[in-house]
Specification:
Length: about 500
């Protein structure tokens, strides 16, 4: 423990032989390889956006990625108007719904979950969802017959967006919409006018001269496959089942999608949601979903001829910092990604999967038999906590608790059973945790922000992993663990890549 080590070092300096000092130094190095120190005060909410810790390279195309409810969002309200941060327990209940959805998808079950329709949980706790999601601002449409309502200060992200060589996105008349990145869904959609809200911040297709609904016999409509939902007035209809039950549905059409001042996709296909019963996915400041799944309808599939079939993103360590979403393979730069093969399971072709084969804690590989990682892990941008097969989680928990024995344990919080009371502790010495994937030395060390969740009012912190109920269900690599790591989804080369300290 760093706080304890300091007086010890002083004692040695004052009264001991040079050999003892050498021993202490070597021990310190050893410790640095095994432990990382987290300043708990940095986990408290901040009212100011501090931007990017690391500015993404100008190569390729990227846009800022941020928490839609955090201070980096153009529509953030600070001070007293700041949305009350959700409790850890609330966040976890929502997260469990997402994990259940991913597990169902992984097993080839795409129906709406029983009992989750309009459950009071997701209406009341809509903000919690935003908390664990990451959004980007994009513009829909390019020419409107009458003034469209703009959402938020549209130019706010142009200071650091995209190619960033000065030309302002303000000149693009598209309607700015905040969309949540979803690597586990295929059909991009946004909320459209008409909508039920009094002040409707949504895109109005009837005013966009570049919008067209797909006729029912069009190729695009046929390509909807299992997302097809019939035909109304010869307009193609789509339907998507979202995370916790309610659906998004409406007309399937196309318009110009502007990512930044250098990158626009004409004829971008998306769903125009008119279903105000879509609950969790339209709450707060989110206007829709940017689907990045492997299906033929996703942004990736649509943009592959221009950008190559690849994207990456980096989730910032804190709400008050920005990450990025990049389309295409990062070019030029000395990008060193740790890579592992991208796997496919025919029951869930939309999902990105990779073979997780081991875990290490404080530099020591856990003793987990390979059978305990039978199913390939799913990478998800919207699940918060990483889910591990039961046996693997048990081994991780035991090793972690062992290394954290100096701290006071606290009661479990929902499914997280390894929690600590950090009252009076500012610097927490955490054992380093690394995930080992299949491939040549594919070891991904997690950031210090990717190990614990908590740090709220009650000084509570919990190991940000939970267990699946068995060893057969796939692990889910959640977004807490992905923090600060650029996660590359290179469909063209069939690789998943990880680059540390990218944001
Ligand atoms: C959505 O859920 C409904 C009802 O469970 C189901 O019939 C339908 O096939 C699902 N749609 C998709 C695209 O999976
Ligand atoms: C679709 O239907 C329209 C009119 O109903 C027809 O003119 C057109 O040729 C059809 N297109 C295709 C691709 O079948
Ligand atoms: C951008 O790409 C070019 C060529 O592809 C390369 O020469 C340059 O070093 C790259 N710059 C950065 C900052 O990555
Ligand atoms: C955490 O520990 C402090 C100091 O021992 C104690 O006062 C406090 O009640 C504990 N908090 C919880 C939630 O147990």
């Amino acid at each position: 423990m760093a706080v304890v080590a300091l007086p010890l070092l002083l004692l040695l300096l004052l009264g001991s032989s040079p050999t003892a000092l050498v021993a202490v130094a070597a021990d310190g190095e050893h410790e640095a390889a095994q432990f990382t120190v987290l300043d708990m005060t940095l986990l408290k909410p901040h009212d100011a956006c501090s931007g990017h810790r690391v500015t993404p390279s100008q190569n390729g195309s990227w846009v800022p990625l941020y928490h839609p409810l955090g201070p980096c969002s153009p529509s953030f309200k600070g001070g007293a108007a700041r949305a009350k941060p959700p409790s850890l327990a609330d966040l976890l209940r929502q997260d469990q719904l997402r994990a259940r959805h991913i597990h169902r998808m992984a097993s080839g079950d795409f129906r709406v979950s029983k009992g989750s329709r309009k459950s009071p949980v997701w209406l009341e706790e809509s903000q919690i969802h935003n908390k664990q999601r990451m959004g980007i601002d994009v513009k829909y449409g390019s020419q409107f017959s009458r003034q469209q309502v703009m959402h938020g200060p549209a130019a706010a992200t142009d200071d650091d967006g995209g190619g960033g060589d000065g030309s302002s996105g303000e000149s693009s008349p598209g309607v700015t919409q905040t969309v949540v990145l979803d690597t586990a869904s295929d059909v991009p959609w946004i909320n459209c006018v008409p909508c039920a809200l009094a002040e409707c911040p949504y895109y109005d297709p009837s005013r966009s001269t570049t919008y067209a609904a797909f006729p029912c016999n069009s190729t695009a409509c046929k390509q909807l496959g299992r997302y097809a939902n019939g035909c109304v007035n010869n307009q193609c209809q789509y339907r998507v089942n979202s995370t916790s039950g309610p659906t998004s549905s409406g007309t399937y059409g196309s318009d110009v999608l502007t990512l930044d001042s250098h990158n626009a996709i004409t004829g971008f296909k998306f769903g125009c949601n008119n279903n105000d019963n879509n609950g969790d996915d339209s709450s707060g400041n989110n206007n829709g979903i940017m689907a990045l799944g492997r299906g033929a309808q996703s942004l990736m599939a649509q943009a592959s001829s221009t950008y190559g079939n690849a994207f990456s993103y980096c989730i910032p360590p804190r709400d008050s910092e920005k990450g990025f979403f990049r389309i295409g393979v990062p070019g030029g730069a000395p990008y060193m990604f740790v890579t592992t093969p991208m796997l496919t399971d025919r029951r869930s072709p939309s999902l990105y999967r990779a073979a997780l084969v081991g875990i290490s804690v404080a530099g020591e590989r856990l003793n987990v038999p390979p059978e305990a990682f039978a199913a390939s892990a799913v990478l998800d941008s919207r699940t918060a906590l990483t889910r591990l097969p039961l046996t693997a989680y048990g081994a991780l928990r035991a090793a972690f608790r062992d290394k954290m024995a100096a701290y006071r344990r606290a009661p479990a919080t929902e499914e997280m059973d390894t929690c600590y009371n950090f009252t009076g502790v500012r610097f927490v010495k955490l054992p380093k945790v690394a995930l080992v994937f299949d491939g040549n030395n594919a070891v991904v060390e997690l950031d210090k922000y990717g190990i614990l969740v908590g740090g709220g009012e009650d000084d509570h912190g919990c190991l940000a992993f939970t267990a699946n109920s068995n060893d057969a269900a796939p692990a889910i690599l959640g977004n807490v663990q992905q923090k600060t790591i650029e996660v590359l989804h290179d469909v063209a080369d069939r690789n998943i890549g990880f680059r540390r300290l990218a944001c």
